[in-house]
Amino acid sequence: xxxxxxxxxxxxxxxxxxxxxxxxxxxxxxxxxxxxxxxxxxxxxxxxxxxxxxxxxxxxxxxxxxxxxxxxxxxxxxxxxxxxxxxxxxxxxxxxxxxxxxxxxxxxxxxxxxxxxxxxxxxxxxxxxxxxxxxxxxxxxxxxxxxxxxxxxxxxxxxxxxxxxxxxxxxxxxxxxxxxxxx
Length: 183
Fold this sequence. Notes:
CATH class of the largest domain: Alpha Beta
Shape: elongated
CATH superfamily of the largest domain: Response regulator
Number of domains: 2
CATH architecture of the largest domain: 3-Layer(aba) Sandwich
Strand content: 5-15%
Oligomer: single chain
Distance between the termini: 38 Å
Structural class: alpha/beta
Largest sheet: 5 strands, parallel
């Protein structure tokens, strides 16, 4: 697994690298460096300190999620702000760990493994939801077009309902009926 460790504390970074020695780890000390890596290399997981020389707090996390919402992120912090963990988890972090909690390679390895699994499931659920929402829009459009059709469109409508959409035909039907659709 390729892990991006964004941590400005040298001692803590060495400990994380040692704990995760079976993984390929790239370490950055700033968000600027992290984005350079994210733009140029494959990264499977980010371990992120929230307080860096060029970024602080939730904004640090938000920048990574805005860059790639499908990337699993484990937040590590030395600051234990009340409510911060809940907020970050709601925003999409897979884990929130205070640095003092990470005292065993086994604990960190478990959190890494679960974070990747949880993010994969979340991405799959989101994609399924988007697929079904798109399908529902198409079916609504087909229902509208059904009432605007003439008899030669029956076969094409049936095919569209079954999921075999002829986009050219649908566009032509939209033009004939004056319906904009959900392009």
